[in-house]
Here is the input.
Amino acid sequence: MTAPSQPLFDPFTLGPLDLPNRLVMAPMTRRRAADGKLPTALMAQYYAQRASAGLIVSESIEVDPLSGLTAPTRPGLFNGKQQSAWRQVTDAVHAAGGRIFAQLSHMGRGAHSSQLESGGRVVGPSAIAATGSIYTATVPLPYEVPHALSEDEIAAIVAQYGEAARLAKDAGFDGVELHGANGYLIDQFLRDASNQRDDRYGGSAERRARFLLDIIAAAKAHWPGQKIGVRVSPTNNFQGMSDSDPVAHYGVIATLLDREGLAYLHLVEPATQPEGLPQVAPTIRQAFTGPLILAAKYDLVSAQAVLAEGRADLVAFGELFLANPDLPERLKRGAPLNPADKATFYTEGERGYTDYPFLV
Here is the structure.
């Protein structure tokens, strides 16, 4: 009898990087940063524990200097102190034999004015508020109507991404991922429900992609294209995000990204979409000829299937990697998996962070 195909554990060449397997640790906000949005020794331990992943993509790292400096919160990468603090993380991952990309992000309309430094503004491509509420330091509050960015203000944010990309290189990361998914600022520009501009950054899918393409150009001042990835989520409806025709529009966007010679395109879309949502992955797979990462609720069986059928090149795991620092070995051996403790996802300290057990 022929043994079942196990492509998840095959090595993969990602640009200049040789990955030992095709498991990617997905970016996951954990809110363990110290005052000043500084990475900590505990964060270095957390990532190093998971260095057996083919590739680690860091938690979302803020590029905006006015994004707020309270802790515990999301880490930043917009000054030298943060760059030096991230070096302890990358050194720890590399010492453990791993590879790690920095995920660079801007919250855009997903922020709240109470969380920003003096002079900071809630911004977006258009003056359209996200839906739902945001947890502030006191109580949940409705999302605010963002300031619609001018072209000069867009250029300033593009420059912030470029500076963060430079600092990521100095911090020892192996590459950067631009966060264009899950309702963050790049995603707000890409989708037409949140972007209703009538200038060169709005309208057609090509023009809505201009912000992302400008950021890629800024990152390329410091990194080759083969060390820059992009994450997108065409059908994720978080914070009221939506698009009138995600299949057609992201086919165009993927074609534009294909010309950039990127390390990969990282698509948030489960193997089986909820009823009413289209499957965008086949269109993106056809339009984008570089490596494709799929993410969202994959398990061993579904991951092996999409790889064996050529629907993706790598698969990202979030919650499973959070709770199982040795996930590749557990999956390969068919060992039991630790359950994730959701109550500790965004709390302080090592509980639910660095205390998940390894296989004996």
